[in-house]
Please model this.
Amino acid sequence: MPDNPSSLASRPLLFRLIPLLVAAALLLGANGVAMTVIAVRGRLNGLSDTTIGLFGSAYYAGFILGVLVTPILIQRVGHIRVFSALAALSAISVLLLLLTAPGFTWAGLRFVSGIAFCGTAMVLESWLNALSSNAERGRILSIYRIVDLGAVTGGQFLLPAFGAGGVEILVVIGLVFCAALIPVSLAREGNPPVSDTTRINYLSIWAISPVAAVGCLTIGLTNGAFRTVGPVYAQGVGLDADGLALLISLWVIAGAIFQFPLGWASDRIDRRYVLIMATLGAGLSCLFLSGVTAEAAIFLGAFLFGGFALPLYSLSAAHANDHAGPGQYVELAAGLTMFFALGAMVGPLIASAVMDRFGPAAFFVYTGGLHLAFVAFVGLRLLVREAAPASRRGRFVWLLRTSPAIFRLASSQKGQDKPDRE
Model:
């Protein structure tokens, strides 16, 4: 006999969240290692860097479609059914790699993976939002960030444990995706209320903050490319499976560490100065990486690159929010996700073509050049727009790029929108 809502509401919040957080850890970990493994397998199968870059572009094209269609699916059949279908689709799209020839079919499967991952993340994040009040969202977001960091970092070490070239690693990833169905299917929670979808006006987002729009596009072109074809660079400079797992982990961990001092500084001065400093650091780190070959230097460069580059998304969103009016935060943040995804759809293809033509070190010439171009753009904007008054400057919040639904959790910390429960 199902539990009634009043009895569920009386249970401690963290206890109610455990099934969703376990499912999130499994999904985030499996998806993180899948992105690494598929790039490595492509190279082991003799595919060109450009073809492997196409896999990353296809994934983010699917992500964009997932942003658009998942809210419609949720409205029609509810969170639990959508989650179950898309988690199963994630497993299928990975396991079919074993039954299909490497090449353009894999790009189609990565497109499906992008839809499925974005959809499952949107379900979980909107569900977490529905279970929390405004006062609790900050704490839940912090827990979710820890889950994300731990799962993505830990998942990378499945690669050296099972190897990238055999059947086992893809079977394990498929099993982990399937395992994410268990806590959600057995949770005592019912479907949360369905929220209305937000229609995004991209021209208005540009008008609110050109810096944030260009920043998120640049971050997609660079960080999105690194996440999907960075393993190709790692193989090109001779890193083994252990070295590759360490490289990605250092990049992610440094991004988490650097969020705090950069966010603290951006709350106290014009965020554009912090954006310039962090972007310049990312660009110089890239140029450093383009000229080194020793493993220790590569790991140091990856740590610095992740530390400066990963916070740029949160800094860009915080700057945009400082200039947004009441009621615009969720629409704005969801729009910035789309700017990021558009960049990430194009970035892997460009970066891989550059590596194909000029070698692995050229990857960081490409990313470094884009970061330095963004520094110049922000510098120009300093000349044409005044800083947001301190009274309008919200508190910096470390954001994830899993789906637009994450911004519902973050919005209560910004002091502008206080959205109702979904």
Summary: Confidence is low (pLDDT under 50) at residues 5-10, 414-422. DSSP finds 18 helices and no strands in the chain.
